[in-house]
Structure formats: structure tokens, C-alpha cells
Design brief:
127 residues, single chain, 3 strands, mainly alpha, 11% strand, 6 helices
Length: 127
């Protein structure tokens, strides 16, 4: 994900809805967003139009209604944000990010087991 296409907080919120729900109209997205916060319909519409201009999502005419679909992959956006955090906050050290996260977050037994499995897999790949 290039820095120019980094979604804003509002755009990311809408992308997460599109990733979870699939293609939706502005009305559908607005209904979901407005359950969490007070936002006008025209604001939702404008954000989604900007997102289409930025190529974050597509806009297809279906009768008289525009249907929006995410064009960027969730993993690509996540990786872009993680890369920026590692560079800007942790001076390029992914390990510092991991240690800080694990130090401030109480992982449950299942998450710890998953982490151990992931580390074991990485160790085997490096042999």
C-alpha cells in the first residue's frame, strides 16, 4: 500500500464494513456506520465518493443505485499501517513492536499457543 493511498480513519471504517459485508450501497454503509456514531448521509456519500476516486473501492451503477466494493485487500492495508508504525514509532524494529504489544496486552492461552506455533514454524523455516 503506498503512502498516498493510506486510508483515513473514516475510510478505514468503511473499508472494514465492505470487507466484512461485501458490496454495499451508501445507504447500507451509512446505516452500519450510524449505529456507532452520529454521521450524516451526505458525509457517508462524500467519503465513499472520495474513496472511489482514490481507488480504494469501486462504484458500479445498479439501476439507479451505486454499489461500492473494496478494491484494496484488508491484509495489504494492515501491512501498510504496520510498516508505517514500525518505521515511524519503533525506528524500524519489528521486534520492538512485538515486545511492546505483548508487554501491554494480556494474551489468553489460545493466543499464546498460536504464538508458540508461529515461532516454531519460523524457527523451522530458518534451518
Amino acid at each position: 500500500m503506498s503512502t498516498k493511498l493510506k486510508p483515513t480513519e473514516s475510510e478505514l471504517e468503511i473499508l472494514q464494513i465492505l470487507w466484512r459485508e461485501g458490496s454495499l450501497t451508501v445507504k447500507d454503509v451509512h446505516k452500519i456506520v450510524s449505529q456507532k456514531r452520529d454521521i450524516g448521509y451526505t458525509t457517508s456519500l462524500k467519503i465513499m465518493q472520495i474513496m472511489a476516486d482514490k481507488k480504494l473501492c469501486s462504484r458500479e451503477l445498479n439501476g439507479k443505485t451505486h454499489v461500492y466494493t473494496a478494491l484494496v485487500q484488508e491484509e495489504d492495508v494492515q501491512n501498510g499501517f504496520i510498516d508505517n508504525i514500525i518505521k515511524q514509532v519503533f525506528q524500524g524494529s519489528a521486534m520492538e513492536l512485538v515486545m511492546q504489544t505483548l508487554g501491554n496486552y494480556k494474551a489468553n492461552k489460545s493466543e499464546i499457543a498460536d504464538l508458540k506455533s508461529f515461532i516454531s514454524k519460523m524457527e523451522n523455516e530458518n534451518k
